[in-house]
Structure formats: C-alpha cells, structure tokens
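Researcher: Good morning. I'm working through a list of sequences from a screen, and I'd like to move beyond sequence-only analysis. For each chain I'm collecting a predicted structure so we can compare shapes side by side. This is the next one on the list. No need for commentary yet; just the structure.
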Amino acid sequence: MKLRIREGTILDDELCGAIMLGALVIEDIPRSFLKDNILMLPLRSNLRFIALCDEVPAGFCDYSVSKSHINYLFVDPLFQANGVGTYLLENVQRRLEAPISVNVLCRNEKAILWYLKKDFIVTKLWSEQFNGQLTPWLKLTRKTL
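Model: Good morning. Structure tokens for this chain:
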C-alpha cells in the first residue's frame, strides 16, 4: 500500500463530503452542509490535504495555518487502521510547525482516543448548539514534535 498526499482544492468539496459522510453517524454531520443528500464540505479559507492510498482517495484534512487548527480530519472507513490518519496528521503538523489543535464532539469517543494516542491533551470543554441541540465538545491540543 502506497500512501501519498496531494494538496486539495474546492474541487474536492464533494469528495471530502463523501468521506466525511462515510465516517460519521448521521446526527454528527452538520446539516448546513447537506444539499439533496450530498454532503458538500466547503474549503473556505482553509488549506486541505487529500491522502491517496494506491492513488485512491482515502482521507482528507482541512486545516488553518493562522489558527494552527485542524478543522476536519476524516478517513474513509475502508482505509481506517492503515496509518492514513496518522499520515495526514503528521503532514499537517510539519506544515504548521506550531502547537496544533482540533475540536471533537464529546460523543465521538473513537476520535478522542485516537487523538490522545497521538499525544494530544484536552485543553477545553464547552457546549454549543449543533444541529439544533446543545452539544458538548472537547478541544485537544498537541505540541510540535
């Protein structure tokens, strides 16, 4: 299995939406991104990496350089547990060269445990409206390696 990273663009919004849709349970998908049962994940002012496994899109990461923050990191379930997420994370960490943070829904235990194994620590807990419900979140932060 050969992994490589390419820069993503707004042309990848639907691809990233499909990966996110496959990786999340329906209640964890931001309703504002769903249009006609298609999830479009807008890049906006972020940067994006697409992970390719043997040239097949396997995951992506949208991140902000100015905030040193990961907005989204998702791996297609078919490619999970193969190092794709770690590969994306390490490439983003090298690009940012600063402590990096990510926000995770508290109910996403799998993601929280994954980030904790990657040397992130919990730095904040809060609740906010998400899909019409008050929802708890965690902010996790990792120092540079």
